[in-house]
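Morning F.,

Quick status update on the modeling queue. The single chain you submitted on Monday has been processed. Sequence for confirmation:
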Amino acid sequence: MPFLPVAPTLQPLREQVRTAKNRPGTYQMLREDGEIVYVGKSKQIRTRLLSYFRAREDEKAYRIVREAQALAWEYEPSEFAALLRELALIKRFRPRFNVQLKRDGRYSFLKLSPGPAPKLFVVRAVSDDAGTYFGPFRGGARIEEAVRQLNDLLGLRDCSLGTPMRFADQSDLFAFEATPRCHRYELQLCVGPCAGLCTESEYKRRVALARTFLDGDADEPLRWLSERMVQAAERWDFEYAARLRDRAGRMEALRDEFSRLREALDSLSFLYSVPGYDAEDRIYLVRRGTVRATLAAPHSAAEKRTLARLVDEHFGVPEPGGTLVPKHQVDEILLLARWFRCNPEELRRTRPPERSGALARSA
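C-alpha cells below.
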C-alpha cells in the first residue's frame, strides 16, 4: 500500500499523490498519530485524491485534508470491489468523518426487543444489541402506524423498554397489586403483562402470531378485524366499521411490504461476474443481498471445479427466508441493493447459481 509520510505543508502531500494510478481503489486519511479520520473509494484514485487539494473552505473535503497529515491508498480491480472494501474499512475503523453508516433516513426497521415480554416497534437504525430486526423498509411513518395497529389488535405492549413486567403465572412472595401502568389495558389494546393480567406463554403466543402474520403465514388478525366489521355493521355502527376497514387496510399494506422485502432479498441471489482492471476479473457469490464468496474468474478446469464447489457450498443448503436480517448484514444488503438500483445494466452480468454450478461441473 503506497503511504505518504507526514508533511509540514500540503504541497509535498499533493506531489506524492501524483504517483497514484488512475484506477479503482480505496484511500485513507490519517492523523500524525495514525488515527484514520476518513475512508473513501473512487473509480480513479489519483483524480479523487487530487480533488481534495482544490476543495473550498466550506466543503467537507477541505476539512478532511486539513485534519490529515498522511494518506494511504490501495487498489481494487473494480469499482464494485472498492465499494465492498470501503464498507469493510468503515465498519472496522469507524472514522469520525465518515457518514456512510448513517443510513438514509428513508429506511426504517422493525425491531422485536429481547426479554420475556418483547416489544414490537419501528427504529431508524440497527443497534448492536440482542434485538431481532426486520427490514429495511421505506416510509417510516406509514410503517409505524401499521405496527401500532397490529400491537393494538394483538394486545402487545408499547410501553417503555424499562417498564417492569409481571406475569400472572409468576410466583410472588409479597403482595402484588395488579394495576396496569397505562390506559391501554382498559381500552382492550394490551393484555397487561406489566400487571400480572396474562401469562408469559400467552403473551409470547401473541408475539409469535405477529411474526407469522407478517411473514404471510397467518390470517387471524385480519379475520378478527373482519368479524368485528360485520358485528359493527349489524349494529348499524358504520363509522366504527369504516375505522376497522381502514385498520385492516394498513395492516394488509404492512404485510405486503414484508412480502416485497422477502422477494427483494431473494432476488439478490446470483453469481455476479465483474470485469477488472488489467483483466483482474472476479466472480462474486451473492445470496440474499450479501457476498458469500469471491474468487478470480475461472479459466482452467480445476478453477471451474472450485467454482462449482463454492456454488454448492453457499447455495446448496437451504437458508431461513422471510424478512429477518442479521444485524451485521444490513449495511452490505443496502449497499448491494443501491448498487444494482443505480446500475441496472450490471444485472446482465448476473446468472442463477444453479446454472453456474452446472456449467462449471461440465467443464
